[in-house]
């Protein structure tokens, strides 16, 4: 496992999490269920797909709430796909997870509200933890 993109992502999420006030939990992002067997599956895939979904949600919500970051979160996802998308199926599942997070919150939030800002904070903390766990468990 190439740890550099995950370590970078962990740093980015940790720094961004510090910029937000803590908020109440709004529920957990669930990783996609596997309807098929991927011969390239890894033991950490559930965490990786959950992280991808968080990146999609953060990408949408940060833009909605006025963060002027352009494609920063999408670029983080591209790096993740580049290092972990070892097969067409894995790439598709990673991208599907990102899009699920993005679209799910696009359907829920049309304006930046207090709950949207709380969701951003929660995802930043949760994403940083996931990235740290992935790095620590795969050294």
| Largest β-sheet summary | none
The domain count comes to 1
Radius of gyration: 14 Å
How many β strands by DSSP?
0
| Shape, per Cα inertia axes | globular
Q: Average pLDDT value? A: 80
Number of helices: 5
**Would you list the SSEs in sequence order as H and E?**
HHHHH
Question: What layout of secondary structure does this protein have?
Answer:
Elements: H1 4-17, H2 45-64, H3 72-84, H4 88-108, H5 114-137
Helix pairs in contact: 1-5, 2-3, 2-4, 2-5, 3-4
What does this molecule look like?
- There is one protein chain.
- 66% of the residues lie in helices and 0% in strands.
- The protein contains five helices and no strands.
- Helix 1 runs antiparallel to helix 5, helix 2 (45-64) runs parallel beside helix 4 and helix 2 packs antiparallel against helix 5.
- The model is unreliable at 15-34 (pLDDT under 50).
């Amino acid at each position: 496992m190439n740890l550099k993109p995950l370590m970078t992502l962990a740093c980015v999420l940790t720094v961004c999490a510090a910029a937000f006030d803590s908020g109440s939990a709004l529920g957990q992002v669930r990783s996609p269920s596997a309807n098929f067997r991927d011969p390239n599956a890894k033991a950490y895939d559930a965490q990786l797909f959950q992280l991808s979904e968080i990146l999609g949600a953060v990408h949408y919500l940060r833009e909605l709430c006025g963060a002027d970051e352009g494609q920063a979160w999408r670029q983080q996802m591209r790096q993740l796909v580049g290092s972990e998308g070892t097969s067409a199926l894995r790439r598709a599942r990673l991208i599907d997870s990102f899009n699920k997070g993005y679209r799910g919150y696009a359907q829920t939030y049309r304006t930046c509200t207090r709950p949207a800002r709380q969701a951003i904070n929660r995802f930043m903390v949760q994403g940083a933890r996931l990235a740290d766990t992935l790095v620590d468990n795969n050294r």
